Amino acid sequence: MSGSEAAPDAEPEAAPESESFTGQSVRRFEDRRILTGEAEYIHDKAPEGTLELALVRSVHAHAEIESIDTAKAEDHPDCELVLTAEDLKEHYNPQPCGLNGFEEWSLADGKVRFAGEPIAAVVARDRYAAEDVAELVNVRYDKLPPVAGASEARKDEVLVHEDEGTNVPDSEHLTFGDPGIAFEEADHVVEGEYSWGRVSGVPLETAGAVAEYDPEGDTFHIDCNIQLHTLVDDTVFETLGYDPDDVYINVPPDVGGSFGTKIAIHRYVNLVAMASHQLGGTPVKFVEDRVENLQGGDVHCSERDYRVRLAVDDDGTMRGLDVFFTDDFGAWPHYPINQVLKPLSVLTNSYHIDHAEYEYELVLTNKTAQTAYRGFGVDPHHYALEMVVDEAARELGMDPTEFRRQNLIDPDQMPYVLPSKNVYDSGDYPEALRRIEAMIEDERDGGLLDPEVVAEKRKEGKYRGTQPSVVIEPGVSGSDWTDRQRSDRDALADRTPDDADELPEHLRAEVAEDGTVRAYLATDSSGQGHQTLVAQLLADELGILPSDVAVDYLDSVDAPTEYGSAASRMAVMLSGAAEGVGEELRENLVELAADYWGVDPGDVSYRDGGVDRVDGDDRLELSDLADVDAVRLGESGTYAEFDYPHPARDVPEFDEAFARKYPVYPTAAYGANAPIVEVDVNTGEVDILEFYTVRDCGTMLNPMIVEGQAHGGIAQGIGAALMEEFAYDDNAQPTATTLFEYLLPSIKNVPDIEMDHTVTPSPFTETGAKGVGEGGMIDAPASVATAINAALDPLGVTADRLPFTPDRARRRLREAGVGPGTDGEGGDAVTDGGGSGRGSHDGRFDHADSAGGDRR
Amino acid sequence: MKPAQFEYHRPDTVQEAVELLDEMEHRAELMAGNQSLGIMLSTRLATPENVIDINRLDALSGIEVADDRVRVGAMTRHREIERSDALGRAVPMLPEAAEQIAGPAVRNRGTFGGSIGEADPAGNYPCAMAALDGTIHLRSVDGEREVPADEFFIAHMFTELEENELIVGGSVDCSPWPSERSGMAFDELKRAAQTWPTVSAAAAVRVDDPGAGDPTVEEARLALANAADVPLGVPDAEDAVEGEPLSEGSLEAVAEATMAAADPEDEMHADAEFKTEAAAEYARRAIRTAYERASG
């Protein structure tokens, strides 16, 4: 178990008359230790005698390794160990990969496939010495031509994996309803091409691991900041070739951010474990530095080129949707391959569209591998969809907000089954759109968007606009569908819902000697505030104060295999698990008290942190019950555990999604955004003047935490829309390897966020909560892009490639004949934004030239 | 990201420092605010045998404003330049350039001399010093010498500085810029506080009569950062605005002269075409702002 000292001492801000702590903005118990520097991160872990590991990384994007000469390194007086793939192959296994048939070793085996790929690991007394030793490893390469982008890779002229025979190891073409007829009969078919740059989460804390092999027990004890340590521990124990019970993986209670990116840091965890093993048990530590993290940390995320078609009628009815995209996954198809499928959970966003096609190609290139990032592939989908919606509104000559409103799913249709079989639980999207429009009404009358102000600003070359829309955040992923790409897809038609196997959420609670309650999560946290949430929920369950609940974490051996904290799950899963474990614990305590008093359990009752005799003449407080239990033989009466099953299992509407292994996300939170943007057409700079948003995540367990999630998500969304990109040059060399180039939004780039909430509880969850961990990142990029479209509408320019950096903006404006030196007079209004326009009724895309040629 | 081994020296006087430099020549790097060198050392792009820490050379720190000459010591921090009222009155371009460098943490440590010595084409002080016809003061065991800013910067991160020389400061003759009828501006296109500007424009303008409705430009200076591999002066742009009141027509000529003079490198998210355009636009803005400030 993790050594957390979570005993919360902060006073909750609950109003005295309030009936529950859940729903209050209880201050986060985690924050005191974080803000006072008392939090212990993985980087603080250093057992006596710990050695440090450094990596020799490839300087080339694609090359055969002719030889690795380690002699000079081994001669260095501080060198303790040098490992190469040869050593690994002698003792261990390849790492589990996202797709079957890929043999990935923790160090490059014979060939390097991206610049920054680790080739050798060296261990020395500290990191300084380790880097000295690493410099002495001499690698001889035979360079191969690199593949730097999906469009080039799809030609299969240069193969990243020769054995695979193609750079497109996974693809699927799904049809829902009858899109053929919808596209043929519709009055218009609108088509657009949109590109989403390679972005990802960049946590303040990089990856880190400290491993200690125990020769006596032949076991591994690993502290690391991997995310989902009770789910993805297979990426470690399988690689080491040990049983799950022999590899103890522990994550500190405090992790400095992950956003999904630390789920796949197993390479580092494996290497320190192997090194400690080879050294007979000396602890070995690795801490990733920032350049390693940005360049070769296996942590980039989606890089997509979309081609989207929308079938619409003259009256504005959306008839059909057709989505094709490529996703540049980099050198290895790591675990998050199912990011290409998650958009199916929100296929038509907030719109009622019955017929759809969905096709993707997962493409391998000479770049660092993708991992998961907040949004998990949904963010680019919403962006592409909202872009083509704008294009259709222009084609129809309709107001883009009215066009959207007309097609919104109606509250009467809830729960709403999407053509792709996921189900929206609840929501009033027209109301959300109405509220966001009401919020910006003042801006249109005397404010930032007052027509006179807008006209004045245009004279200076500054174009303002906004575009309200409603964007869905799918929450609480199921686990069964996530291996669709490793399944026999032809056999899925014959499956029944009962064939689906879902992971529950595990929670334990016990009464400590002093009468406080300790709870144990079977997953890890990376800043979300789970300790606070569990304390709130259990305080209500047990009639005690949140400050009487301490929350700790289980290691990978102690905990059952479960999904854990990802995919916007925890608000919902913890709601159910806390209710279950609370009930179980109350029952146990009642039995314990009844046994002590020698009465029937029916004659006692649990109330506010103690058990009363119904006849009213005695009461045992929790501390008394702990004393009673301590001297009693047999099973503990002050302990309970509970596995909360996935909430979609009981909802028949999900049966088909379960049976067919389509993404199952039983909560649909949503945001209606209206960022007000100003584009300086002379320089291409985009300024977000104010970010208005109305959000609904059902019941808010802790509104302060909900708002914090939204603030952070919106900031990341702004980064993806305007600033961040892991770009590569033509030689597949990364050009963003420091924070000078990978531009994260700071307080200077994030505007004031004006946030309002509506509350539409989920009918599928215990508290009515919906998943809320990825909102903001999911909705803000689409909203910023469409606001730019609105601002530049008079010039016929759209944000058809993200990030919409100043140089890209200027390129589009130049193409439209605008400036520089524009004072509002320049520029021919054109109706056809770059890369978009009228599509064809017949036939889909010619994939040979679609979705991302050399679009700059 | 750990530096290779080096020997650390920390002289207490300028004389000691130049003697060490003379002894070690190319085998030493000077450590001033350590905001750029630290990164080079940690990534092992720089692996000097010796590092000479000059943070104890108090004589190199400080701002002097006397009569018509302003002198800034090499070890003066950005923060001090940013907040100097005396500089703000005499050469406001320098505080304006300083306040736009990175964030407060960097400005508290980074130095004037460090920025001049680094000679990054996107750097703020090199551009400002070029615009102001400033002088760079150097010292070695052989004594002091002065180099005009426009001769000091030779190419990308390459300067007149000899291996045994120390930058002791910079100076500017402010007699051409009487505050009551002069204006200055330092304007940069920068996408995030923590990174380098894409382009910057530094402008100074003196007018004949600020009380007049449209005063005539007597003298103008314009320099651009990151529009070439050295700070780029644009004499044609200066000529275009001198001798008449500023007009849209003369600003257009400023933009055209800048476009003609600019010769930038491609960068991620800023190709040469974009940087040229942006340089012209920022040149126009900086001249306009400087003129407005000069005109009161």
What fraction of residues of chain A sit in β-strands?
15-25%
Distance between the termini of chain A: 51 Å
Arithmetic mean of pLDDT of chain A: 94
Helix-strand string of chain B: EHEHEEEHHHHHHEEHEEEEEEEHHH
Rg of chain B, Cα atoms, Å: 19 Å
Low-confidence spans of chain B? none
- Structural class determined from secondary elements of chain A: alpha+beta
Question: What can you see in these coordinates?
Answer:
The complex is a heterodimer of chains A (856) and B (296). By secondary structure, chain A is an alpha+beta fold. Chain A has a domain at 503-645: 2-Layer Sandwich (Aldehyde Oxidoreductase, domain 4). Helices cover 25% and strands 22% of the residues of chain A. The longest helix of chain A is centred in the last third of the chain and has 28 residues, at 570-597. Residues 1-16, 824-838 and 847-856 of chain A have low confidence and may be disordered. In chain B, helix 5 (93-99) runs antiparallel to helix 8 (124-131), helix 10 packs antiparallel against helix 11 (248-261) and helix 11 packs antiparallel against helix 12. In chain B, the strands form 4 sheets. A 5-stranded antiparallel beta sheet of chain B has the order 4-5-10-6-7. Chain B has a 4-stranded antiparallel beta sheet with strand order 11-12-13-14, with helices on both faces. Helix content of chain B is 35%, strand content 25%. By secondary structure, chain B is an alpha+beta fold. Chain B folds into 3 domains: 7-53, Uridine Diphospho-n-acetylenolpyruvylglucosamine Reductase, domain 2, CATH 3.30.43.10; 61-173, Uridine Diphospho-n-acetylenolpyruvylglucosamine Reductase, domain 3; 179-294, Enolase-like, domain 1. In chain B, a hairpin with a 2-residue loop joins strand 6 (135-140) and strand 7. Chain B contains 12 helices and 14 strands. Classes of the chains: A alpha+beta (856), B alpha+beta (296). Chains A and B meet through helix 4, helix 9 and helix 21 of A and helix 12 of B.
